[in-house]
Amino acid sequence: MLPFDPSKRNSFQRQICDGDLVIVYERHDSMKAIKVNNGSELQNRFGVFKHADWIGKPFGSKALSTKGGFVYLLAPTPELWTLVLSHRTQILYIADISFVVTYLEIVPGCLVLESGTGSGSLTTSLARAVAPSGHVHTFDFHEQRATLAREDFEKNGMSSLITVFVRDIQGEGFPEEFCGTADSVFLDLPQPWLALPSVARMLKQDGVVCSFSPCIEQVQRSCETLRAKFTDIRTFEILLRTYEIKEARIKVEEEDKGSPVGSLPYKRRQYSSSEENHECMEKTNSIMARPSRETKGHTGYLTFARLACI
Ligand SMILES: C[S@@+](CC[C@H](N)C(=O)[O-])C[C@H]1O[C@@H](n2cnc3c(N)ncnc32)[C@H](O)[C@@H]1O
Asked: At which positions is S-adenosyl-L-methionine bound (predicted)?
């Protein structure tokens, strides 16, 4: 993303320039990536926005439409990119991605191998984690997907940190030129066990592999193969619960007045059925948090293993 463009200053203090990619944010479930083009306009339900008005504003600014509506202009971080990229395949989302980056122990300077590239959702976060001096080599056997991923990394400013190869990793393994060079390897393949012997050759001593699989049968088969060369084999399923934060008007009993209403146990906020109790209740505004209906369930299993020492 922008912070790694050596010709420019850190994006979060930088002003938006003609040609920059910005994330136009309406709300958490409605945003899109737009390349700023002096002379162009964005039209949405909030009105018409002239790109020319965005140039020179800092990232994070509120932009006004001709009829007074607004959007926010955000810097294209990997987290936001994952939410706006075009889906050419299933992708990894933030909950799995953050766990992968942490458990693979990826830090600036690491060399990471990945297959398949897919829509490049994970690749973008891997690249930010290894920046500015590391590199991600990502492989997909689907030529058109590889081409589109390259174009996306150009667009989002990550291309200097990522090389995209076309290769059948299950059939051929990773190229021998990477033998013993990888700090970590990530697989999102239908038959990851076929690639694991090659992964063991690619990793540096003590390196870590992670394989993402939607089905437990794939996990079992991978674990059987991992036992030959790897240790500390562990599988995780990341389940995330999102909460909606809403302001609501609720009734409060006299005795509860003055206490932090939002944190009262639910039962104490119930409407009473008896008339006399109704008289000693008054309405108040409060912030409520409740589990979101959009909460995602199972995405897949993440299996990690460390190359056994010799
Ligand atoms: C689910 S997608 C990966 C999504 C990616 N993790 C993301 O977050 O955007 C799986 C990719 O693996 C690729 N693939 C499947 N078999 C492969 C193989 N044998 N060698 C290389 N790539 C392969 C597919 O073309 C597909 O693009």
From this structure: 119-122, 140, 168, 188
190 CA to centre of ligand 1 in angstroms: 8
Asked if CATH classification 3.40.50.150 holds for the domain at 80-239+298-307, the reply, yes or no, is yes
> Which of 115, 124, 152 has most ligand 1 atoms within 8 Å of its beta carbon, as the pocket-test mutant?
115
Check pocket membership of 174 for ligand 1, CB cut-off 6 A: no
How much is the pTM? 0.87
Instruction: Give the per-residue pLDDT at 255.
Output: 58
Position 10: which residue type?
A: N
> Could you tell me whether strands 21-27 and 70-74 are parallel, antiparallel, or unpaired per DSSP bridges?
antiparallel
Centroid of ligand 1 to alpha carbon of 189 (angstroms)? 5
The parts of the chain modelled with pLDDT lower than 70 are 1-13, 253-281
Measured distance CA(268)–CA(209) in Å, rounded: 50
CA-wise closest residue to 269 among 285, 256, 279:
256
What single string gives the DSSP state of each residue in 156-192?
A: TT-GGGEEEEE--HHHH-S-GGGTTTEEEEEE--SSG
Q: Tokens for 53, please give them.
A: 């008005």
| The CATH number, out of the four listed (3.40.1180.10, 3.40.50.720, 3.40.50.11690, 3.10.330.20), of the domain defined by the range 2-76 | 3.10.330.20
pLDDT score recorded for residue 310 = 73
